[in-house]
What we know:
Elements: E1 4-10, H1 18-29, E2 35-40, E3 55-59, H2 64-81, E4 84-89, H3 92-101, E5 111-115, H4 124-136, E6 139-142, H5 145-149, H6 153-159, E7 163-165, H7 172-179, H8 185-188, E8 190-197, H9 206-212, E9 220-224, H10 229-238, E10 244-248, H11 252-261, E11 262-267, H12 276-284, E12 287-290, H13 294-303, H14 313-324, H15 328-345, H16 348-362
Amino acid sequence: MTKLCIVTIVDSISVTSMPVNEFVLYRSRMNYPYRQVLVSCSGDVPEDVDIPSDVQLFLVGGNTNKMRPALRQVINECKERNEEIIIHLHAQKSAIKFFLASVGLKLRKKTLFTIHSSYSSRNLKYKLSSCLCSLLSKYSNCVSHVAYAEYSPMVKRIKGERMFAIQNGVDYERVQDATRRLPNHNEAFDMFKVVCIGRMIPIKNQQFLIRLMKHLPETELILIGKEDVHMSALARELGVDGRVKMKGLLPRDEVFRILNECGIYVSASLVEGMPVSVLEAMSVGLIPVLSDIPPHQEVSNGCSLFNTLPLIEKDWLQTIRTYQQLSRQELIGLSTQIKDSIVRNFSLESMHKKYDEIYELLSH
């Protein structure tokens, strides 16, 4: 089997970053049979992120002049070790810096560009940069079948079989490890605690969730993500700030502790690629209440135990209240079925097998 060196290139490193957590750290923890290099276009590693010693790290900042010598060093090391170098690009900004820095290094034929977000609802700048990176890369993929279906028809036509969909998966082993020391979710969850994880930006639509709280007086909404002053102001304006708990950015073990105590996961997002936070929450056993955007529908199709909802307040209120009125036994049964369906249909192991097939193609 060909010896591989996978070079993962990202904009930055964070505790919630999928390219870092579900790719680099997962493969290190699971002892995947190739060497890993992580190149970050930022200048530091947050204190709450631990990069394993077997992952070679380059912090090149925003300067392409620093990326080029890093790439040269890895190329030389691969020659010495008789390894095939594979470049995995995870975001437009860092991908464009890579293409500029690698001119003349003959690496384009070794590149995979992964599109982590949806396409149709994004602005023109995003679309143009995404298309450019897709066309410059040897292979490109979307993280859901829905995201692939809505991607640029022109780019798909040009790329042909070199563009495809690989569904995101959930790291169930990590979920189990994070919750092993916690009380069993069947005993700990509270249906009057609902939770949402995500950046507090307009497309994630947390303001819709805050407005729901005005009509759910016994319910607490927990928002995990960088706090936004506009969201805090809205909660105060509606008089629900005592029941809207903004937790900010948290270590992943703390995130799972909170998920373990909650009964419902909510997302009113307007745009997603394939929502990993939804999959993680469901793998803990939370019941999802999700907006009817296509990526959420793809999760629903793979689970079949819930339906997505249009952004109509009365529909959301009725759905949440219906779940809150179920008996404990009914809720445990539904929670167990949801968990089992996610583990069965959205495993990270299955996702990586498909990526490994592409890496093998790139190695020749």
